[in-house]
Amino acid sequence: MGSTKTTTLKLPDELKTRIAPLAEAVGKTPHAWMVEALEAQTALAEMRELFIADAQASAAEIDAGGPLYAAEDVHAYIVARASGKAARRPTPVRRTRKR
After folding, report:
1. Of 15, 36, 49, 96, which is least packed with CB atoms within 10 Å of its CB?
2. How confident is the model at residue 1 (pLDDT cuts 50, 70, 90)?
3. Rounded to whole angstroms, how far apart are CA atoms 96 and 68?
4. DSSP 8-state class, residue 64
């Protein structure tokens, strides 16, 4: 895990009481259980940030004239592929002009 630093985390008594049996149930100390929980939440937050960045990049690509696909065509393609069937990739749809 690399180097570690000591930090103080003040927890409400009620939360500490809830954590202790959960940690014990999985054979961990409350400290180890909390570190693992913090690592999991950090990973989720990082994945969320990447997801949002990807969505923003996709929106920018669309705004710049990138291809658009009909949702039902994409859905049919994914369902066919997931069930092991051969499937044609969806073809882009025509854009309508903004007024």
Report:
1. 96
2. low
3. 11
4. T
